[in-house]
Write a structure and sequence with these properties.
Oligomer: single chain
Shape: globular
Mean pLDDT: 81
Structural class: alpha/beta
Largest sheet: 3 strands, parallel
Order of helices and strands: EHEHEH
Number of strands: 3
Strand content: 5-15%
């Protein structure tokens, strides 16, 4: 039997995360720069755990007004700093017991 690894960007404040999560195998959870926030991250992680869905951090550009889609001129160091700043947020939000994010889930926009 074939299996499909179905992944989705979640925790961005859309209304259907709870309905989508049981249908997927992995979730990229927004870390707050382009969308989301601590309460949404916490709720999304709880939903993923309840459904046995792998989850990981989804860092983005600091552009909430345009959902991280504004063309930005940034250096590789700035991208590194944006990501480095957001990853601890995802780890701190993960309530005990801590389940490390799936390494395949780390992605940027």
């Amino acid at each position: 039997m074939y299996k499909i690894d179905l992944n989705s960007d979640l925790g961005e404040g859309a209304a259907f995360d709870a309905q989508i999560i049981p249908l997927i195998t992995g979730a990229n959870i927004a870390c707050g720069f382009h969308a989301g926030g601590s309460e949404i991250m916490d709720k999304t992680i709880d939903l993923c755990r309840a459904s046995g869905v792998a989850f990981g951090a989804h860092p983005g550009y600091p552009d909430r007004e345009n959902f991280g889609r504004t063309k930005m001129t940034v250096t590789p160091k700035q991208v590194y700093d944006f990501t480095l700043y957001q990853l601890p947020t995802a780890q701190c939000i993960t309530p005990p017991p801590r389940i490390p994010p799936s390494p395949r889930q780390l992605r940027t926009q």
